[in-house]
Amino acid sequence: MHSVTARPIAETKPGIEIERRATQEPPYKVILHNDDFTPMEHVVETLRKVIPRMSTRQAVDIMLEAHTNGKAVATKTHKELAELYMESLNNEGLISTIEPD
Q: CA of 73: how far to CAs of 5, 7, 17, 47, in Å?
């Protein structure tokens, strides 16, 4: 039998700060826009698929807000991730944009 030795995944030296880009960048809003042709179920499924840890309840609330008001903020995050979410939502047939928060 082989023995398994646990190794640390990453080590940092004491006293060295790790740069956190996400907190240094201004947040961006990912905005979902209403349309008159995408089924509501598809919107909910797509939001849950694209945005990690989004609950069904959150996705339904965002979909209903966009349906009622014309648009809704789906999430807020740093610009690079906001762009990725926007592209992913748009690739699934939804209409989304980003803007600084």
A: 46, 42, 33, 11
Task: Determine the structural domain holding residue 91 and report its residue range.
Answer: 39-100
Per the structure, how many domains does the chain have? 1
- Give Cα separations from 33 to 13, 17, 60, 95, 96 (angstroms): 46, 40, 14, 5, 6
Contact (Cβ atoms closer than 8 angstroms) between residue 64 and residue 57: no
Full-model pTM: 0.75
60 lies in a domain? yes
Q: Give the Cα separation of 90 and 1 in Å (integer).
A: 52
Model pLDDT for residues 40-75, shown as the tens digit of each residue: 999 999 999 999 999 999 999 999 999 999 999 999
pLDDT > 90: percent of the chain:
73
- pLDDT at 24 (0 to 100): 75
Tell me whether residue 58 is in a domain: yes
Instruction: Decide if 1 is inside a domain.
Output: no
Contact indicator for 71, 86 with CB cutoff of 8 Å: no
